[in-house]
Amino acid sequence: MAFKLWAGSSASIPTGALTGAFALSVLLAACGGSGKTDAPGAVAVPQCSGASCGAQGQPPGTPVVAAKLCPDALDYSTTYTGGSGSGEYIKMQFNSATKKYQMTFVESAVPISVGQVNVTRAGLTITGDYDNPTGSFALPTAEQNRCAIVLKNGTTADGTYSVTINPQDPPMLFVGEGIIGGGIPGATIQFSGVTSLGFPIGVVPQRTFDSYPFLGFSQTVTDFTQVAGAYNEVGFRMSPEGNPAQGTDGLTTTGWAPQAVQASETLNADGTCTPDSSPNSCVLTGTPWTVRTNADGSADNVFVSRANGLAYPAAGVGVLQLLFAPSLAHGIMIVGKVNNQLVPVMIRVGYAHTDNTATGILNNALDDQLGISLLAPATKIAQTALKGGYIGANSASACGLVTTIGQSPNPIYVNGQPVYAASGTCTDGSASFNPGVNYGATLFQSPSAALLNPFTSAASSNFSLDFTQTQPGIVNVTATKPLMSGSTALYQAGDTGVMVQVGPVYGLLMNGINPTFTTNDPAHNIGKVNPFLSIGAFVE
């Protein structure tokens, strides 16, 4: 696959030229990432003119060979290890001969049924059928469709748990060489809270998610000395029960509070994290990162960090963490290796346990913030590095329309200092159910770029890029056209954000800094409560 680029602003990028360019998913890095070091150099070609040139072009009848975007066949001998926006650590396999898949939720805080939080998808394995995309989900070329997967169903071997698939917005995955991404099956979540104290605590309003964004790898690294270094982090979190800044009384929560993570930090060879002065720096590191141990005592192929004290670190202010014993919430770091480039992905696996008995109050635990982050080296990005086409999944499938009361009139105390925060709410139905938005593609034509619908190649949004980089590796972004899902703006023209790059993968975070203020002035103290995270892989 190849892109033809046009001069001019991002708004002038012809969408028709993108036919075939964006078929892939967060995952066709195998086509050759921008970080590849073995690309051939320029070749000197002798010049000719007129009849001396001889026959030009391809010989008649020579077939055009399409670039191979994914393995010729998939079977259960290849395992993809990754993480999701739902804070789930997952392993998956596929059999392209039978169109079957297997997915194991190794770690998860997603409940298997509404009305409770104690029984989750952790440890469950589902099997199911899949198809390649057709109809309105068809991608521009046959090769792209061969490498794309549309999940149809999924159930455990004993039939006690099945996922629900919305045929209008099914989970889609895109397979490349060594990398896979897109969406995994979602869930419906609701909990009425714990009433042991005479009033409900930890109420989670009902939400239905068609899918959760996912990124995984067929090869991972387990030597942390290879991972150590200075990084920029972009991430997205959700707190299911919300936080006190959502209500005017400082007590009432409305649930499903989004929280961005935009930070810089240093990961040390011993697994510790050294923060800088940025908000939420090292917010996903508790105990030093070590290789996770499986239930049978064998070494896993990911890293884990646990609570260093009572609670596991959480992003944002006013996060509800109700604990009488050390939290079982933890972090998982998956370090993929793609085209000889390391791509670190971190997830926060939340934890909640309830006991409504009269004597069971000390058995209750609430530390259920969940989410995903991408780490990218804190080194300056050349303006020529971000070019061509990428595709990926984003946070719109979890949180699209965000409502807010604005700045809360009630203070939240942080290290003894009162701050007045603003928080958003993603209610049921607020997520995007538009696959053309949830699996958006990106075309870079520095110093501008465009987001596009990968199925129609229609432009969805445009933004400008500023490569000044006062913080190395952080490219400032300004939206010049809003990103719409139907009549809902996921972000507006004029909104700002940042972009990072690690090997063949990029991360875009809009509205990543939600400021807190020490004064209560709602008319002038405006928060940014609608973060948007997109993670995509280089196509070509």
From TrEMBL:
It comes from the Bacteria. InterPro entries: DUF2957. This is DUF2957 family protein. It comes from Paraburkholderia bryophila.
